[in-house]
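Q: Here's a chain of 524 amino acids. Please give me its 3D structure as tokens.
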Amino acid sequence: MDPFRHLRSGLRRAALPLFAAAVTGLVSLPSLRNGFVNVDDPEFLIRPFRDLGAASIRGVFSGFYFSNYAPLSLLSLSFDFALWGLNPFGYHLTNLLLHAANAALFALLCLEFLSLAGASENDKPAAAAAALFFSLHPLRVQSVAWVAERRDVLCGFFFLLTLLFWMSSFRPGRLKGARGRTAAIAAFFFALLSKAAVIPLPFVLILLDIWPLRRLPASPRRWGASSWALWKEKLPFLALSAMFAALAVAAQSRGGAVAGAAAFQRLNQIGLSFVFYLGKLLWPARLAFYEWHWPPIRTAVFLGAAATAALLAAAVRSRRLRAPLLGALAYQTLMLAPVLGFVTIGHELVADRYSYLSGLGWALLFGAGLRELARRRRPAAALLACALLTALAVTTRAQIAVWRDSVSLWKQTARVDPDSLAARPNLAGALIQSGRTGEAILYLEEHVRLNPGDAGVRSALEELISRTGTTERDHAGFHEQLGLEFLAQGEPGKAAWHFERALRYDPDSARLREELERARRGAP
């Protein structure tokens, strides 16, 4: 008898999740050099109950904070504070480890799904590619590099465990049957304590019963009384979802939720969401904080309908792709339901972080498509996977750098969304904290120019100018510095505007005129 047989078998089983976790961790490693940002991190981390005493833990579980009920996520930040104090490295390390663990869990889940669709020698490479498509996609960066969004990675960990336990209950093993379902219920409870975004999970389980488990027919008209046993096993999940949905509504109401917007606005946001998440999935460029007002209804709804129609047309034309395409579309719709605008908080109609769980279906579809291609052209499938995943990794690294600090984050937001009401004031606040008051004044001036009705920012600008005693020559230097920055970034139009402003304050400067000419020529 071979004494190492079990060891080798265990290593073979562990190779797939370990590979996915290791690659994810390596690509995300630069986030460990990032600091905190002035969005939510200071408020989450400088709170009166950040220790691990009984009173603090009781406060975390009995109250609503920042319009959310997510006590387990807050508790995890308390653990980080106990270990690291206010050193951002430790908080980012926890986020990175959770995200890497999620990549490992998703790789195992993809392997389970692909095996159900028909075992193949390409299952493991396809599952690895699907997991990396999920974990290396730039849309994940907001959830991983933003400390205050610990909720996404922690909730994702327990959500994926829930699905793995649920799937394991249908095959032989220690978690078969009731044990697997009980473990899934426990994991779901912890996921809900981390973030309410997983409330739709009972309906996701019904979707899995249709495909790939095939426990339910695709048409609801054929379900009948014989399906009662399947509904009964979902009741504990539905009860937990209902309880946490009530808590979420109560938390958001206390936070100033705006409910009951016009029906056309809701339809508009649904269309906008499909455009945003499908578009950014395929072309993840210009990612930042988004603060969108309601655009014209025809634009968002028509574009959203066109994107959805293309997927539906592909599903109708191909019987092989019908189930996975419709499944991925239905899964995204279910998981986005809580953020489609039925209750609105803040100004973000869409956000990168909302895709952390809702994008899992498209990653699985990517892996399934690669497996199909590998059956006929394995070298082409391998080349495609390597090229695409490398491109995603490079883009993700660049996006992690955007989250390095508050200045880089809000500069990117101002570039991507010039109409943002939050970008320039937040950028100015970050610049003032770093001792760059002159630059802060310029961004506040630009904000007031674009939003003349913002009396609060106008008053803050006047007070800042009065307190610092800046001169016209100072203003010229500030504008020149920004102009040179925009030239270096390849944006000569914005550079020229700042050089023109600088010349208003220092009209005799020959150097400024030369720089303005360079910008107008578009020269580097």
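Q: Can you summarize the key feature?
A: The domain at 406-521 is CATH 1.25.40 (Serine Threonine Protein Phosphatase 5, Tetratricopeptide repeat).
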